[in-house]
C-alpha cells in the first residue's frame, strides 16, 4: 500500500482538528453549547393606560406596553416557551419624587402588571426590580440626600417595595440598585412576610456602563438623571472588586446572580460561575441590542446571525440564561428550526 502520509500529518502528530468540522452532522454531534428557549428571559417595559403599544425610538422593535398589552405579550411568550418576563415601569412623572415613594404603592404600575400577568398566564415567571430609579425625580436608584445616594435608608425602602411586589405575585425579586447589604435585608424581609418561596436574582455585578442609554429612554429617566451612578455601580475596570461584590450577595442569600451589561463582561460571567456555582444570568442590555439593530438596519452585519452568536457566547461563558430584548425573535426562530 502506498504511504499517503502528508507532511501535515507529521507536523500535527496525525491530529487534525478539521475532522470534527467536516460535515453538518459532525459539527452538530460535537457542539459544546446549545441555545434553547429555556435560556431566555424577556424584559418588557410598562406604561400607564389601556391599549398602549408605544415604540421606543432608541430600541427599534421594542415597545412600551400598557398592562393589558403586557398580558397579551406574556401569553405570546408563554406560547413560545419563554420561561419568564422581567418587567420595568415607565412611571408618570407626577408620581416621581426625591425618595421614590411610589415604589411602595401596592397598586403601582409594576404591581398591577404582575397581578394581571400572573392571573392570565400563571405558568410564566415574573421577575421584578425594586431599584428606585423609575420612581425618583432625579433618576437615581436610591434616595438622594444632600447630593449623596444614601445606602441604608434606600435598602430599607427597597425591602418594603420587595414585599409589595411579592404580595402582587412576583416570583423573583431582582434588585438592580447595587446598595450594600440589600440582598440580606430583602431576604429577611421576604421571609418575615411569609414569602420564603420568592427567589432573589442579585444584580451581583452591575457596572457603571455606557451601554444603558436606550434603557433610560425607555423608562423615562434619561432626562432626569442628575450626575452619574459611579458611587454605587462597579467601575468597568474592576474585575476582582466585582467578584467580591458577588461573593457578598451569595453570603447574604442570593438564589441566582446576574451580570450587567452582558457581552463586554463575559469574563465576569465565567469567573462568577466558576467561583460560586450558582445559576448565572447575563443581561444583554439596551445598548448592546440597539447597536446590533442599527448595524443590521444598515446592512453592515447579518442581524439574525449576530443576534444568535452573541446569545450563544453567553452560554459558552457559563451563563444559565440571558435577559434579552431579542427573546421573542429568538424564540420564534428556534421554534421554526425545531
TrEMBL record:
TM annotation in the entry: none
PANTHER family attached to this UniProt entry: DELTA-AMINOLEVULINIC ACID DEHYDRATASE
Active-site annotation: 206 (schiff-base intermediate with substrate), 260 (schiff-base intermediate with substrate)
Chemical reaction(s) catalysed: 2 5-aminolevulinate = porphobilinogen + 2 H2O + H(+)
UniProt keyword list: Heme biosynthesis, Lyase, Porphyrin biosynthesis
Pfam families referenced in this protein's UniProt entry, alphabetically: ALAD
Organism: Ferranicluibacter rubi
Family that this chain belongs to: Belongs to the ALAD family.
Name this protein carries in UniProt: Delta-aminolevulinic acid dehydratase
